[in-house]
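Protocol step 4 of 5: obtain the predicted structure for the target chain.
Materials: sequence only (see below). No template structures provided, no constraints applied. The aim of this step is simply to have a reference model before the mutagenesis design in step 5. Sequence pasted as it appears in the construct record:
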Amino acid sequence: MANSCVVNDVLCFCSTYYGKTPKGEIIDTLVGFYDDKEIESAKETLFNIVRGLSPKIDDLPRCRTRKDGSNKRRLDSDDLLSLIEFVDKKNVELPPVYASDVRRIPSFAPSMVDNVRLADSIVKLQQQLSDVVKELAELKSAVKGNRNSDDITATTVEMIADVHDVHDVDTDQKTVPSTGQSYATLFQSKDDQGQWFMVTKNKPKPTAVSRKITGKGSGCGNSSLKAAAPSGNKPRNWYCFVGRLDPDTTEDDVNKHLGDAGIAVVSCSMLKKTQKWQEKYAAFHVVVEFAYKDLMFDDALWPIGTDVRDWVFTNSK
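Step 4 output (structure tokens):
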């Protein structure tokens, strides 16, 4: 074992839990407990230790400098754990690591980091609520000192302050006349004299609805106006791809199978096998009458594993 030792709180925590706790939980604890500088310093310290080992490690990863940002702490933590994992796989013996201040070592398992974060969030919310109550109390005091303001505004501010002030609850609350406006609209504008006034929202104009009909009459008297003739009586067809059949399957086999199912087949042609893997299967371009297109996609009609799709037409080059 090396004679020298290393004093670093972050490295002490990592060496204690590495191999006993999932890597992700260790990183979560590092991010939630230590600040950016502590993690970055621990990473650089470990890189310097490994870089100075003898014999030297040729494939040692470089120490990446992460830019400042919201994700910097997590990236540095991941780099630190990755280096520890790299050294562990190399069976490299590191000097013992100690903590300079045991209070800077989390006294809980990494799996409890979510509870710690929740408690920290509650503390922050309590502080924010305290700041809001303080600002509302100051606003209430300012309004009481200037009664020349609009009565509705003064009363509204007093009510908001009284509702949120947990130290001074006014049991004789005043009411605001119903105006159909929210508190937010009462404070969003002033007139030329500096007095508050309510903003009236412009009602949206109704959108005109376009109307459409299909003519059914025979015209007006001897009118020469005529509708266009309907399209010809050319029968409609539906085009399908049928694949992943046995390579010995023939066009006659497909025609007979569909005919026995009562489907009128217009044409059936086997597709050319241009790739080596296509020799394992038989695939066909099948055209049926339009009325039978839904029957083609009845899964009970086809053997297990057969691939049946609508035929996709592409523009020829």
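Step 4 remarks: The first helix runs from residue 9 to 17. The helical segments are 9-17, 23-33, 36-51, 72-89, 113-144, 151-164, 183-186, 251-260.
Proceed to step 5.
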